[in-house]
Input
Amino acid sequence: MNRELLLSLVKKYKSPLYVYDAEKIESQYNRMTKAFSSVRKLKLNYAVKALSNISILKIFNSLGAGLDTVSVQEVQLGLKAGYDPKNIIFTPNGVSLEEIEQAKDLGVQINIDNLSILEQFGQKYPKTPVCIRMNPHVMAGGNSKISVGHIDSKFGISIHQLPHIHRVVKNTGMFISGIHMHTGSDIYDVDAFIRATEILFNAAATFKDLQYIDFGSGFKVPYKEGDIETDIEELGVKLSKRFNDFCKETGKDLTLMFEPGKYLVSEAGKFLVNVNVVKQTTSTVFASVDSGLNHLIRPMFYDSYHHIENISNPNSKERFYTVVGYICETDTFGTNRKISEIKEGDILCFNNAGAYCFSMASNYNSRYRPAEVLVYKGKDYLIRERETIEDLIQGQIEINI
Output
């Protein structure tokens, strides 16, 4: 999406504004499927939590993807987007048995990550196929908050508790259809990922009726020029060979599954904001914009980097700016960034705004959430209206005391 198009979209839909490139989403999906084309049965389940707009879900449905969901509400969104329940996997963490039962009643695939619920579910529904999420005890991810496969993680059943899993399975007679892991996000070391998969292969060999192995995702995308990223082609070569060999050795005709989210949508997203004020202090020049951590929390929450460009004035002399939001607390998008000279009224563009950006947005400070626009083959589509005061008070009940 070029600068002129983005500026025209701000003029049409106002700011702040999320814009998504449908063709980039398609190309990322196709790149990943091509990388694993030597596997006979491959299934990519898009991680809904990354970007849950129903129009985005429909794109993935048209591409042949399934969905990875973490709440019964995400399951319901997938069904509204037209997905066959069999193409939705429910992978929650720490939810009640009742929520898992709701998902089961909707007909989706169940993935369980703790022994207590596994036993309870197996006792009540032994004939319902279940996937088991394992914790391989492998530290992976670009930030401790997004590393979920280490020994102290709340996610998954410890690989060392495999004998306990088999005891539960034997006692309940339940059917284990899949085995799953997810080590974390922003994984760039292919060999470290392969080591974790070996742990899962060893566990998978102990289940006789397995239908698929889900290796999670968390693949790193570039955030700036020259940035390191997961070599998905290298991973495709190495893991495909190991998977095919495993199927041959065990005599199992398995499906290789992944649950990519960020990898598929991060680079497709742009976030456009208007500069409200340029403020010079004794040491810093602040560019304050009409947005904040209520719309894009990743920099404050994960210390994540989003490249920031001044698309109104791209060729001017570069200066150093700290870009901040309008939320009434420390609210910083980037510190001492070298950006083309910024003036009040300029439009700044944040890259990599497709994943975990709008989906983590809130109404903090009673601010409205932004509009969302999808661009496909040069045409723009409004896929979420900007909120209004009516949206803020919907569901509230006024009382007179």
Observations:
- The chain has two domains: 36-265, 269-393.
